[in-house]
Amino acid sequence: MKLKTNNLLEELSNTEVNNLTIVVDETLAQNLKKEDHKNFTVAKLWDIQRRKKNLYSRKFYY
Question: Fewer Cβ within 10 Å of end Cβ, the chain: N or C?
Fold first, then answer.
């Protein structure tokens, strides 16, 4: 187990730390499109169950 670490970063002064942690104003992207919410339908449930049966039957086929 490695007990020592390599400190790749130099020690920062207080002013440098303050400059790095200044809050940046965020802007909202106005041109983003919302994805349509896809409903879980009975047909999708039926398809999942059908696939499950096929996989289960293949498991014991060999």
Answer: N
Does residue 20 contact residue 12 with C-beta atoms inside 8 Å? yes
The pLDDT > 70 percentage for the chain reads 71
Q: Which residues touch 19 (CB under 8 Å, ≥6 apart)?
A: none
Residues sharing a CB contact under 8 Å with residue 20, sequence separation 6 or more, in sequence order: 12
Q: List, for residues 33-54, the tens digit of each pLDDT value.
A: 777 778 899 999 999 988 887 7
DSSP state of 9: S
Determine if residue 15 is left, alpha or beta; phi over 0 gives left, psi from -120 to 50 gives alpha, anything else beta.
alpha
